[in-house]
Design brief:
The structure is a single chain. 39% of the residues lie in helices and 14% in strands. It is built from five helices and five strands; from the N terminus they run ααβαβαβββα.
């Protein structure tokens, strides 16, 4: 007959005591070591992913708007660059409508498209200042492999009176002059992020 009060055998009591007892310091340290190991493993994975991303990102990185001082630097910026690198040059003068806004926009885009070389040069510093009258400024020249791909004179006329980096980005993308947007940096030091496995 079965009784509602079950009697436990000696083996059952031993098993129950093993599960109910407190954890020893040695067991606790083992569990903590496993957690630390997992954290180290996640950091290692993240670092490997960053390294792999850098190796797969071909070409030099720029990330800023470079000021060219003269015509010689202008030619070097175009001709001495890799054939796969897009070079966007803004020809401007101080006080010309749209030039400051375009410089600000290109500074933002340079940070987002680090594989594109963004440059600016004053028309008077090019050595061909007579070709760049105030009526054609601001001008954008786009080169790749030393060849001129696009030439946009009075480019600010393509935008509203007030324009921003997103407007310039859309304009350049419309003509297929910008590469795919850069991947965000893999791991910004934030260890709370979940890794993809």
């Amino acid at each position: 007959m079965s009784s509602p009060h079950r009697s436990f055998s000696k083996d059952d009591k031993d098993t129950r005591e093993r599960f109910c007892r407190k954890m020893s310091m040695q067991e606790y340290e083992l569990i903590q070591d496993e957690k630390e190991d997992e954290s180290c493993l996640q950091k290692y994975r993240k670092r490997c992913m960053q390294d792999m991303h850098q190796r797969l990102s071909f070409g030099p990185k720029y990330g800023y708007l470079c000021e060219l001082q003269n015509g010689e630097q202008f030619l070097e910026a175009i001709e001495k660059e890799r054939k796969t690198t897009t070079v966007i040059v803004h020809i401007y003068e101080d006080g010309i409508k749209g030039c400051d806004a375009l410089n600000s926009s290109l500074t933002c885009l340079a940070a987002e498209y680090a594989t594109v070389k963004f440059c600016k040069i004053k028309a008077s510093d090019t050595g061909a200042g007579d070709r760049f009258s105030d009526e054609v400024l601001p001008t954008l020249l786009v080169y790749k492999g030393g060849e001129l791909l696009s030439n946009f004179i009075s480019v600010s006329e393509q935008f509203n009176d007030e324009f921003f980096a997103v407007d310039v980005e859309s304009f350049l993308n419309e003509y297929g002059l910008l590469p795919e947007r850069e991947l965000p940096a893999l791991g910004n030091g934030n260890t709370d992020e979940q890794d993809v496995e």
